[in-house]
């Protein structure tokens, strides 16, 4: 039963992340989330920038919490990681933290609430396109390229074949004419003695 649920959840995750990438981020990182907001028939994008103070990894139900200070008040918001309303997630700054939950920041303000930056270098995206999808895309591209090549070859072969047929017909015409002339000459030669023999018989009869 657990295996079936895991397979179903993996398929759901693959469908949800097929059109966007999710970078690898940790608590203490400053993140900018761009949301899709629909108001009646219109839709717009709204961004929420804050520090990640908590993250919960639970397959499809994974969540992360962002906190920011707005007009002197602390504002926290929980985002589902695989929500369809999230357009993209960007990492603005990476923090150096040794805790998984940063709830202590709720009681701090000013300099005591700051977190030191840390350069972790270029990290691989947590959820990117799988190897199978990449291979399938490459194979589809190769097949499409081969199909176009074969079509172009066939199209170029057709006029070549027509040109060859025209050349053959042109080369065969003089040969056929020569054969006809030779046949006519032979027929004339064969008819000449017959005509002479007829003349002799006529003269003898006279």
Show the helix and strand layout.
Elements: H1 2-16, E1 30-39, E2 42-56, E3 63-70, E4 73-80, E5 86-93, H2 131-205
Antiparallel strand pairs: 1-2, 1-5, 2-3, 3-4
Question: What are the salient characteristics of this protein?
Answer:
206 residues, alpha+beta, SH3 type barrels, five-stranded antiparallel sheet, 2 helices, 44% helix
Briefly summarize what is shown:
The protein is α+β, with helices and mostly antiparallel strands. It is built from two helices and five strands. The protein has a domain at 2-127: SH3 type barrels.
Helix- and strand-based class?
alpha+beta
- Principal-axes shape call: rod-shaped
Strand order of the largest sheet: 4-3-2-1-5
**What is the CATH topology assignment of one domain?**
SH3 type barrels
CATH class type of one domain:
Mainly Beta
Helix content: 40-55%
Radius of gyration computed on alpha carbons:
43 Å
Largest sheet: 5 strands, antiparallel
Tally of alpha and pi helices: 2
Let me know the number of strands.
5
Question: What is the multimeric organization of the chains shown?
Answer: single chain
Low-confidence stretches: 130-137
Query: How big a fraction of the residues is strand?
Result: 15-25%
- Report the end-to-end length measured between terminal Cα atoms: 125 Å
Tell me, rounded to a whole number, the average pLDDT: 78
CATH architecture of one domain: Roll
Summarize the helix and strand pattern as letters.
Answer: HEEEEEH
